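Subject: Protein entry, chain in single-letter code together with its fold tokens

Category: Structural biology, sequence-to-fold work with a learned token vocabulary.

Notation: Tokens come from a learned vocabulary of local backbone shapes, not from coordinates.

Start of record: The labelled sequence and token lines come straight after this line.
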Amino acid sequence: MGIFKTLSDSAGLVDDMADRLDVDLTHIGGLDVESSALAYRSMVLSCTACKQHEDCRRLLDNNAKLEDAPSYCRNRDVMHRA
């Protein structure tokens, strides 16, 4: 898989996880747009390093809402702070 496909898939997983958890990532890095963009980039790159994309995609596809991010989620703590 190419890097751009991996980044795109990871961005989709981050966005979908935030949606299922009802987390607004708009100000994830604070009120500053640049800080939020950097925080979002960090989340996507962290997700990219995860080896459980298939499990995550299956979880997200089978649940309209989630109470908690799965234990393997590399962005679990960030999602709970948002």
About this structure: The chain has four helices and no strands.
